[in-house]
UniProtKB/TrEMBL annotation:
CDD domains: Complex1_LYR_SDHAF3_LYRM10
InterPro entries linked: SDHAF3/Sdh7 (IPR008381)
Protein name: Succinate dehydrogenase assembly factor 3
One cellular component term from this protein's GO annotations in UniProt: mitochondrial intermembrane space
Organismal lineage: Eukaryota, Sar, Alveolata, Ciliophora, Intramacronucleata
Length: 104
């Protein structure tokens, strides 16, 4: 699992780097906060199998950012079905925070 955590750190920093390159500042604030929280929770709670799947999903996200096709798209129904209750709650909080930022 230690080797996976090392890979996870690389993935984490790659995402933050891509956010700096690809996202507008207001989206970057939201995206960075969300990524940090997701990685923190995965490091604390995920078993090895879950962590591997977690990293695979983030690798797809990195690829989509590279291709600049992810910005502003909705989650697919398949992606939504993979979310656990805590992730759904975090997503709702993120949406609320985003709405507040737009109104300011």
């Amino acid at each position: 699992m230690d080797q996976l955590k090392g890979i996870g750190i690389q993935v984490f920093y790659t995402i933050l780097k891509q956010h700096r390159r690809k996202l507008r500042p207001e989206m970057r604030i939201l995206g960075d906060a969300y990524v940090k929280e997701e990685f923190r929770q995965a490091n604390q709670k995920a078993n090895q199998e879950q962590y591997i799947e977690f990293l695979k999903r983030w690798a797809i996200y990195i690829e989509e950012l590279d291709q600049s096709k992810l910005i502003g798209r909705d989650l697919t129904s398949e992606e939504k079905s993979l979310l656990n209750d805590e992730q759904i709650e975090n997503l709702a909080k993120l949406k609320e925070f985003s709405k507040q930022q737009k109104s300011e």
